[in-house]
């Protein structure tokens, strides 16, 4: 037993077990311990040493198992993180490394993956918040939910969210462009109609008078904006028709009363736009109620002036009608000259007769030209007869040669009269030459 104790391992501070046993033997000898008691105490000492070694071995085994379990758990977590991030798992085990070295390497890699996962998760949350924000700006009704699945944080999934965000941004920009387009149209209409644009736009939605980035682009806002624009466009068309009717009446009154050009200049823009289309009228306040009332007042003034000058106008139109009848060899109806009729009605009927005669004269243009030639030839024939009866036609004197030339020309014209007669007869019967 003593020899076995002497073969034990070295203790701390280079104290050999054998030297300690020798010292213990000396102490026991001094005490007077028996050999049996010494053996019992040595056996007890060896047992305590074995127990201590066993505890250390067990502790080392537990530590080794703990390291292996930690490494295995870390590898499993790394595999999970790589799968969640869409990356291929990394293998770390090498046969020439101790467990502590392997544990250190894998822990560093695990911490790096955790950091990258948190960054990726932060990116997902940021894009998710942006999607929800833009979606709320487009549609006020809740319903869009984006659940973040931390088991799928791959780049592909993140790119899908970015594409979704880009699509929402595009839709928002399209809506904003549509709102700005309708606002420009509304502003133009308000300018032409002399309506307060800001008040009209704020009645649709108060954000429409603010900066572009804060404008509301909800579907119902766009619909109300379109409805308001359409309503003002109808008002514009209604006022256009009203002004065009007033302009037509004004032109007729100017024509009837021979209004000077200088007096017409102040309404030149109005009369120039009498046949303009809706999109061509863009001048500010050109369709305001103030301007329309101003034109109405002018038309009323002209109508009052027309009533005072109606008799002069009727006389002037009668003279024009008589001259037209004389030139066209037509006869006007006499019903329009009845004294029992209203003066304005008489004037309208005379103008209608003038219009009818002008149309009739245009349709008989060729006949009238032939008749004019016939009358001219007859006049030349009458002059030639008077000339032939003049006994002094050959006497020398001033202008005699001119008279001779006219006589020659008259004989040539008179010689064509039979041809005119037969030609007119055939023309009247419908024969074309």
UniProtKB/TrEMBL annotation:
GO BP annotation list: microtubule cytoskeleton organization
Domain of life where this protein originates: Eukaryota
Coiled-coil stretches: 50-130
Database matches in Pfam families: MAP65_ASE1 (PF03999)
One GO CC term on file: cytoplasm
Record has Membrane as a keyword: no
InterPro entries on file: MAP65_Ase1_PRC1 (IPR007145)
Keyword set, alphabetical order: Coiled coil, Microtubule
A Gene Ontology molecular function term of the record: microtubule binding
Family: Belongs to the MAP65/ASE1 family.
The name this protein goes by in its record: 65-kDa microtubule-associated protein 3
Highest classification ranks of the organism: Eukaryota, Viridiplantae, Streptophyta, Embryophyta, Tracheophyta
Gene field: MAP65-3
